[in-house]
Design a protein that fits this description.
Blueprint (H helix, E strand, L loop, with lengths): L1 H4 L3 H24 L13 H14 L22 H8 L7 H19 L5 H11 L2 H9 L3 H14 L8 H19 L16 H19 L4 H8 L7 E3 L2 H6 L5 H22 L1 H7 L9 H19 L1 E3 L10 H11 L2 H26 L3 H31 L12
Antiparallel strand pairs: 1-2
Helix pairs in contact: 2-5, 2-6, 3-4, 5-8, 8-9, 8-15, 9-10, 13-18, 15-16, 15-18, 16-17, 17-18
Length: 413
């Protein structure tokens, strides 16, 4: 019932605008076989087809990690096998693709609507531009499985949490159980186990949770050779991806680019530590939980930064994973409301530039008279992600350094 209490006219307008946009998009597909966005594939929900087509592949006795004939674009399966197991259990084959994709979209925006604070027209416009940005449209057009992970993160860190101490330990255990499930689905959410450091619970619970999650995850990953297929079969794009090694791969074609980019990102991280030591109080005065009515937004704020920084370090990611940047925005807006600090406004502008950078680079790619202009735009786009990684690293370090003085997840009653 709490969800419906927070419903107001701005949220209703937000949902109606989203609905009209999605209706136009769907009609374009039905009537013309085309999308209103330039990067779309036809038929829609290409990443749902990856799973449903693999279910068909398995039912015919073939290996979806090597056989490509069941995919319209000749792709091999690049997810952990648990996806095929789940879809097979519910008898979801390729005939169910469109239904699954539409359910994804509906749940995505409903979960979003009730987890946001939209109290005025300014915030409503900010969220509209964010949730209709190119990476988010790519996410829903492809029906990518990151939508499911987005649900799980919001459920585990927002809906399952409260501002009271009641059943605190139980809620934390359930939250990390869901995070473990998300990690089994797509591996990278395991980085959210680092959130345990920020939890206001006894050290024994931290040890039990972290050790259980990590051991279970490692046993799952190394129990079969699917990890090799997952890492090698994922497609990459220079202007639709982000990560520390994108520039090294596509501009310099360097071997061992992961090692080089990993070292560079660690160096940037240590620079963030040094700067944080010098300007610790200034950063804390901007980013803190004092006066925050609903600290669940702080949970999402930390999770969004950790996912971005973690995925940035470990390699290349499709831009639809920027969806986790959006869960940092409610906290930023709350801090701006309280402090009216221009630094936070600039940070939101930076996130906007990153989200819309892909579209700009795509346009430049087609209209620029010289390819050097396109390359320059591409480098600038990736430079912005490095800047955001640096800023988020500083904030995470700063919040960690004050953990003993601030109750991060629950109010003191």
């Amino acid at each position: 019932m709490e969800m419906y209490k927070n419903l107001n006219k701005y949220k209703i307008i937000f949902l109606l605008v989203i609905f009209v946009f999605l209706l136009i998009w769907l009609l374009c597909y039905i009537l013309y076989g085309k999308s209103i966005t330039p990067w779309a594939l036809y038929p829609p929900f290409a990443d749902v087809i990856t799973i449903t087509g693999s279910v068909d592949c398995m039912s015919h006795g073939f290996d979806p990690y090597t056989v490509t004939v069941f995919d319209p674009w000749g792709r091999t399966f690049c997810y952990p096998p648990i996806w095929i197991n789940i879809f097979s259990f519910f008898c979801l084959d390729k005939s169910a693709t469109n239904y699954i994709g539409i359910i994804y979209i509906i749940l995505f925006y409903i979960f979003t609507l009730f987890s946001l604070k939209i109290e005025d027209i300014k915030n409503m416009l900010i969220y509209l531009f964010l949730f209709l940005s190119p990476p988010i449209l790519l996410l829903i057009e492809r029906g990518n499985s990151d939508i499911i992970l987005y649900f799980i993160v919001i459920i585990s860190l927002f809906y399952l949490r409260s501002n009271s101490e009641s059943d605190k330990n139980f809620k934390v255990y359930i939250s990390y159980g869901l995070i473990l499930f998300a990690s089994l689905l797509k591996l990278y959410p395991i980085i959210l186990i680092s959130l345990i450091i920020y939890e206001k619970i006894a050290i024994k619970h931290k040890i039990i949770i972290s050790s259980t999650v990590i051991i279970t995850f490692l046993l799952y990953v190394f129990s079969s050779d699917f990890i090799v297929h997952v890492l090698t079969n994922v497609a990459k794009s220079s202007f639709s991806s982000y990560g520390s090694n994108i520039i090294l791969i596509f501009f310099f074609n360097l071997k061992n680019s992961f090692i080089i980019s990993f070292v560079l990102s660690i160096i940037v991280f240590f620079i963030a530590i040094i700067i944080n030591l010098k300007f610790k109080e200034k950063i804390f005065n901007i980013i803190n939980v004092d006066g925050l009515k609903d600290r669940r937004y702080y949970n999402l704020f930390l999770a969004g930064m950790i996912i971005f920084c973690g995925t940035f370090v470990i390699g290349s990611n499709w831009n639809y994973r920027f969806v986790f940047l959006l869960i940092t925005i409610p906290y930023f807006l709350e801090m701006i409301k309280q402090k009216n600090d221009n630094n936070l406004k600039y940070l939101i502008v930076l996130i906007f530039c990153i989200l819309y950078g892909t579209l700009c680079v795509s346009v430049i790619r087609h209209i620029a008279p010289y390819k050097e202009i396109f390359y320059a735009a591409l480098v600038f786009q990736h430079l912005l992600t490095w800047i955001l990684y640096f800023i988020f690293s500083m904030i995470l370090i700063n919040q960690l350094s004050i953990i003993r003085n601030v109750n991060l997840f629950f109010d003191r009653n």
